[in-house]
Amino acid sequence: MVGISLLSRISGPFAVVILASVLVLMTSGVSEGSVTERRPNPRSCGEAAMCCQGQNNTCFVFGQRVDRSDDSSRCYCDSNCLIMGDCCMDYHHTCKSVDCQVGDWEEWTTCDNPCGYGTRKRTRDVTQYPDNGGSHCPVLKQRRACVGFEAEVCSQNLIGEQAEEKAEQARILPIEFGIYRTEKKYDPWKGILKNLYAKYFNEIFTRATYRGKYQITSTHHGCENSEWASILKANTSVCVECQPVAMNREIGMRCLGHGVYNAETAWKAVDVPHCHGTWIMTDGHQPETCNINVEDDNKRNFIFL
């Protein structure tokens, strides 16, 4: 029986539905006025003029299989027969596979970030979709990293950033306070040190410590009343570190008031009344620390708060 033989490919509740469909198709194939004219009792895909995509359990005829199996009297003309091994003898000739064909790559797009890290992409179109078990289409889209640099956009960004940085006031402490940020034996919640942890404690930072070198251009007399701030006199050169715990995410992972190269900006000594002034950055930001190993220079090394 056709229906019973068909069930070897499928199982479960769908078997009854498929069997009914096959019987209807067979009946309609021989009924008067049928639209599809087929050769009586076709025994090959060519005689049935039938080639189907994927797995189609109704796409079969009663003919010899390529594996010459005696278990079934039917062979299939769907592309899944290549996997099942139950194709009709003429399947490869009648239903020739067609591999996917694609066109040439388009040109890479411009960087999606006009000033900074971004991505570029390109695409290609399918000119021939796979048929009869042909190979699948290759990658149609590609992306790669890029660094955009449009002079006008970058210059405007730089002007905006520098204007903001020039208006900031740095808050500094002696570099010796920097060890309190990492050594557990010190209590970060006592006295002036609590300010170091108030906002950024326990956050994970990805930027390393960097430093800048400055020449003090003016200072207020209040600095003279502090042992550590008394070194902050006009024409004195100092080095200031921006350590990760002091970096502010909202302004671009940097320290507030870290200055602008060759420009005058403001500074303030933390916890020293009336100790403030201006300085000029003489050596731009570098990914390194201040030299705290030289005894004479220790008093001229500071950290941003």
From TrEMBL:
Domain SMB residue range list: 47-99
InterPro entries linked to this entry: SBSPO (IPR039942), SBSPON_C (IPR056801), Somatomedin_B_dom (IPR001212), TSP1_rpt (IPR000884), TSP1_rpt_sf (IPR036383), TSP1_spondin_dom (IPR044004)
Keyword check for GTP-binding: no
Keyword Cytoplasm assigned: no
Region forming the signal peptide: 1-33
Segments crossing the lipid bilayer: none
Keyword terms, alphabetized: Disulfide bond, Glycoprotein, Signal
Pfam families: SBSPON_C, TSP1_spondin
Name of this protein: SMB domain-containing protein
Gene source species: Lymnaea stagnalis
